[in-house]
Amino acid sequence: MVEDRGVTSTPFSGRGAIDLGALATARQNQQKAAAAVANAPAGVVIDVTEATFQAEVIDRSMTVPVVLDLWAEWCGPCKQLSPILEKLAAEDAGRWILAKVDVDAEKRIGAAFQVQSIPAVFAVIKGQPVPLFQGAYAEPQIRQILDELLKVAAEQGVTGHLTDQQDQAPLDAVAVEPIGEPITDPRFDAAFEAIEAGDWGAAEAAYRLILEADSADRDAQAGLAMVGLYRRTESEDEGALRAIAEQADAVGDVRVQCATADFDALAGRWSLAFDRLIACVRASAGADRELVRSRLLELFILAGQDPAVLGARTALANALF
To answer: Among 52, 75, 91, 115, which residue carries the largest CB count within 10 Å?
Structure first.
């Protein structure tokens, strides 16, 4: 059922990456999630700590599937994924519970699940963890995964409902608001509108305009890098690229390695993306090496405070000097 993806696993194949419209629709997703959760049964979305993990995850999972969303405030893809999970949990109205874990605050939970990159999503059924996926998937893919999860849970006799538990021994639900505030800065409106229209050039121009006024704007830097990632991967064949990239003599093929690393980045596999490009830096020179170095710097911006970044920056410096 589970396909090996290195850091974690997912029962489904496919692009496994951020929806091309995700950046532009993040604000709408947050608003929809907030409205859906407000109208859903109490407790379908909860915050979980180490102190409450046994009662709210392990114990509940004996009768109702629990989905864990492992996130952090600094994680950009988490802010795209979490509202989708909240919305789907509210729509399913108690068939499963969404338990949100801030891995910065709850490091022992992250360590227990061997989380190396976020967002990471697991299920817990009868107290047993089930890896689902890593990275910011699109809503249709997540719905497919959840439908399959409910089938697996039913096969194991876990067919309860949140309201059944509330009738017996209700636990205090935690009021959960979407992670992060909706982006309202009007400077970004032109970029979002361009992304919604699929006009990558206009989106890049809008972000560059912001950076001309404030070159240190991290949101604009990340937006520009992400649009570049979308543009580059839109028409590429991931399978064909990987087949070439894994050949022994391809480590110095800058185009292939950079393109393959883009797909690793889209799926949140930062360590794989960084390792691939650092090996390419070592195998290249001149303009090719500079291109790979620049691509790495873009991905560092996108990865934010992911733990893989610090080691990769050191490895890049060693490879260059």
So the answer is: 75
Q: Which residues of 12-23 are buried (b: 16+ CB within 10 A; e: fewer)?
A: beebbbbbbebb
The answer, as to whether pTM is greater than 0.85, is no
Confidence of residue 175 (pLDDT cuts 50, 70, 90): very low
Task: Say if residues 308 and 270 touch (Cβ distance below 8 Å).
Answer: yes
β-pairing, 97-102 vs 45-47, is parallel
Angle between helices 254-266 and 286-303 (to 10 degrees): 0
SS3 content of the chain, % helix, strand, coil (to 5): 55, 10, 35
pLDDT tens, position by position, 223-282: 888 888 888 888 888 889 899 988 878 888 899 999 999 988 887 788 999 999 999 999
User: What is the DSSP code string of 25-86?
Assistant: HHHHHHHHHHHHHHTSPTTSEEE--TTTHIIIIIIGGGTS-EEEEEE-TT-HHHHHHHHHHH
Q: Which residue has the higher pLDDT, 30 or 318?
A: 318
- 3.30.429.10, 3.30.470.20, 3.30.43.10, 3.40.30.10: CATH of 3-168: 3.40.30.10
* Catalytic residue IDs: 75, 78
